[in-house]
Amino acid sequence: MSRLSNLMATLRRWARAAADVWYGMTAYGFWISLRRERTYVERMFMLLLVGDLLGLPILSPYYSLRLLPYILPSIHRWQVEMLRERDIVDLLGEGDSLG
User: Fold this and answer.
1) Over the stretch 25-48, which tens digit does the pLDDT of each residue have?
2) pTM of the full structure
3) How many CA atoms lie within 13 A of 17 on its CB side?
4) Using N-to-C axis directions, what is the helix angle for 61-71 and 28-50, rounded to 10°?
5) Are 43 and 80 contacting, i.e. CB atoms less than 8 angstroms apart?
6) Domain ranges of the chain
7) Cα atoms found within 13 Å of the Cα of residue 87, Cβ hemisphere only
């Protein structure tokens, strides 16, 4: 019985590895581009809402205060991201592929 369970465990590992390779070949690039796009949209949304902290009063303070409870958990992360020192390598890594 242990040989059968060892064989089944080995087959599960191989199936999992094949599924991971298939995912990497088909959907991983799409997933990365979706995450990048979400980050850009989130940055713009945060800039729209709290842009007056940076000197860009784009949205009325009334609407900013109404939406503040929804963005409060992510303000610190946004602030760190905006104040992070950028390098040329960072700028090259953020762009889409040239091909």
Assistant:
1) 999 989 999 998 998 898 888 888
2) 0.60
3) 6
4) 140
5) no
6) 2-94
7) 3
